[in-house]
Amino acid sequence: MSTITVYIPRDTAAVAMGAHEIAQQLAAQAQERGLDIQIVRNGSRGLLWLEPLVEVQTAAGRVAYGPVQTEDLPGLFDAGFLQGGTHKLCHGLTDAIPYLKNQERLTFARVGIIDPVSVADYQACGGFEGLSKALAMETAAIVKEVTDSGLRGRGGAAFPTGIKWNTVLNTPAQQKYIVCNADEGDSGTFSDRMLMEGDPLCLIEGMTIAGLAVGATYGYIYVRSEYPLAVQALNEAIEAARAAGWLGKNIQGSGYEFDLEVRKAAGAYICGEETALLDSLEGKRGMVRVKPPLPAIKGLFGQPTVINNVVSLASVPVILAKGGAYYQNYGMGRSRGTLAFQLTGNLQNGGLVEKAFGVTLRELLYDYGGGSASGRPLRAVQVGGPLGAYLPEHQWDVPLDYETYMKINAMVGHGGLVAFDDTVDMAHMAQYAMEFCAIESCGKCTPCRIGSTRGVETIQKIRRREDMDNHVELLRDLCDTMFSGSLCALGGMTPYPVLSALEHFPQDFGLAPQTEQDLAKV
Length: 522
Hints:
Layout: E1 4-7, H1 12-16, H2 19-32, E2 37-40, E3 54-58, E4 61-65, H3 73-78, E5 90-93, H4 98-101, H5 119-124, H6 129-134, H7 139-149, H8 161-169, E6 177-182, H9 191-198, H10 200-214, E7 218-223, H11 228-243, E8 259-264, H12 274-281, E9 305-309, H13 310-314, H14 316-322, H15 324-328, E10 331-332, E11 335-336, E12 338-345, E13 351-356, H16 361-368, E14 378-383, E15 390-392, H17 402-407, E16 416-421, H18 426-440, H19 446-463, H20 468-485, H21 489-493, H22 495-504, H23 516-521
Parallel strand pairs: 1-2, 6-7, 6-9, 7-8, 12-16
Antiparallel strand pairs: 1-3, 3-4, 4-5, 10-11, 12-13, 14-15, 14-16
Helix pairs in contact: 7-8, 7-10, 9-10, 9-11, 18-19, 18-22, 19-20
């Protein structure tokens, strides 16, 4: 009997639901039954409501079973699941599951498919093709390919990646750095974690290409401390890449040198802001720097530095491998390529969905998310993390695109979605947004430090129905001051959730509800 390969994720979400125990028990029971299996600890496919998702390699392809618990294993063995047998937990061929089948997976193409720390698996699925091409290109040509692709920062700011790289390339210095911002602290976001745990070699390849493009020889991955499994996977992958000659001195005999290391963050949300991150990397308290100078000119240790987030850098290998035009063919307007949308909150099917820009919230909420988990009507969705606007149903058909969302005073951000049903109190959510800013502020600028504290107090007074007209006006003035005067996006974007709640859900604040004429203006 030939060896049967079984895939069980090592992803944090799967582990939290008992994946380690499933792997141990499955191996033990297979041995007791005299069955020859090989267990591969892959990344998560992103169908988080089915975790732990166990896949079995059959002649027809991988067959999925989930969510599997240890008590399900005897029944699965009896049903012949190692041959793809029918069982109540069987979902058929994994690739045919509509949630997966209807995605456009470019950056996450290998996540859930391979052993995340195996160089052989990575290369068998197209890994290092982009870097191999880059090693034979001029630096300016690499930057041009990334520029032509239309790739923009996937961390939320959406700044064109090629422009940032070109600035670093053309800034002379003896030492330059590549810094990956993996301090993924936004509520409702986990795509960076899934990529680092499910395909860390892709991030390593992207950073190496970036280093080659701008003349940097060293890099840092700044990972939030709450991601221990991501840190473990990254360190294993770095060692494997070095051993295979894809990191270190004289990469693949090219004469080019690039190496990197992982640094754990200390738990401050503000260190997701690029300049506060640099201070933290330098051993200082993480506080926002005044710009200019830009980090691309004077960044880490005062040297030119490329700072991109995980998904931005992990998108680079496919761009170099298949060309900027291939990547640019996805998306709409100035939003090119794909984004990994993360579906969380009150949804039946939470998880990760990689789609080209232009998909709508309604599609994500219902075609993928399956509607509310509570069975009640969905009422609001926060898009883009804790600094994102709350969108009511009449805006759910607006295409998810950077510029289109700006027109409705919202942002796509990191692609995180948090859904709420009709029991939510939006005045409470507005207060929560202000409280979040007050707690997480680095304290360097007055609009953020004081404005958020006064904002919490003002919303509390509105909720108590105290002097409503004056306090609503004061809240709007505070938001305007924060928006215009804050040093970084934390204070500058907190007004988005607050004002969107006030505008779209005024009845929750004790104000008159929106009329049809109000909705027609939006």
